[in-house]
Amino acid sequence: MQPERVLTPEETPAERRTFFPKHEVRVLLLEGLHEVAVDAFKNQTFQVESLSKSLTTDQLKEKIANVHILGIRSKTTVTKEILDCAKKLKAIGCFCIGTDQVDLDEAQIKGIPVFNSPFANSRSVAELVLGEVIMLARKVTDASRGMHNGNWNKTASGCYEIRGKTIGIIGYGHVGSQVSLLAESFNMNVLYYDIESKLPLGNAKECDNLEEVLKKSDFVTLHVPKTDLTEKMIAKPQLDLMKKGSYLLNLSRGSVVDLNDLRDALTSGHIAGCAVDVYPKEPSANGDGFVVPLQNCPNTILTPHIGGSTLEAQEAIGKEVSTKLIKYLNEGSTSGAVNFPQITMTNEFKGGHRLLNVHQNRPGVLKIINNILSDYNISAQWLNTTNKIGYLIVQVDTVMSRDLLRNIKALDSSIQTRLLY
User: Fold this and answer.
1) Residue 398's domain spans which residues?
2) Which of 81, 282, 362, 406 is labelled catalytic?
3) Which pTM does this prediction carry?
4) Residue among 138, 174, 253, 418 flagged as catalytic
5) Active site residue 35
6) Residue 140: CATH number of its domain
7) Which residue among 273, 302, 331 closes a domain?
8) Which of 320, 344, 368 is a domain's end point?
9) Total count of domains within the chain
């Protein structure tokens, strides 16, 4: 909680719009986020520290103690242990699609919304998938490796067009549906399976189960999140179901495929090739010494988690996530948060202050809060809840706002409470 303060005449209107002067807001950005994000926070006059790599657990625990906004990508893991050290943290931005690197439940009960970018790099990943499908079908990597070693081996053996072939998409979300559209433009047949019913795009056909996709597809591409359900969802039994001579691509999460079983399927010739971009354990920084069971397997494309690593995608992600974080800090809007009650706000609250309260969602709490609010002139009020927390926004007269802030903060159910000026 921040100490109360008296607004001074020297403060700009922008500084009066947050819970304390913006130049005191500390932002920590890790893993080389795009400059558009760095500039967005600097333009708010926040204190910004931007690092090109991730931090060790101990380093992050030390740095996060005085941070209000944390920005990360996929290499940084934010555990309960780290969140326990983040006494001033207001929000986390995952500048990527996934959020499984953050303990979302723990962040929620600490009143910390987590934002991500579920759409911005979908096209970049989908384009890489189709490029790799072609490369696998033509054994390009093996041919290229041979040429680098001085071996001229011009052959059509085992090389195919992708036109007319069937691609099976596991996970028909933002990326999977983009892959579907691109594959169809190559005149491929598209099958897909998702645990939730999804509207097919183009001529794509939905399958009833995973096994059906595996049995019918020439190429299988995975686009699923990291969950208990997807843990090693592709292992020897599933690989055995795939067509002899088919191909597997994984640009989703490293935990989804058993790499040892995939290596065996490649060396036996049952699987004709694979493309893998994600791994069960990934380095925290660039460098040598990375080891994975698929190295030196035939017709195998290995990339260092670059599916969404295009300049266009990173710029779009930087803009989207930084905008969400700034809107939350300045306005209280939680639109797009993955672990938090959704309330969409604007910055128009002239003639009063805006009180934001995150509280435990337990019987009787709202009644107590409303009893307190009944003593004040409230011009507007918003509330949304999850099963664990409630998020309340109240607009109140300026002259009474600090008194209300004290009373709401004092409740034992309050998790985080702040006032926007």
Assistant:
1) 348-421
2) 282
3) 0.83
4) 253
5) no
6) 3.40.50.720
7) 302
8) 344
9) 3
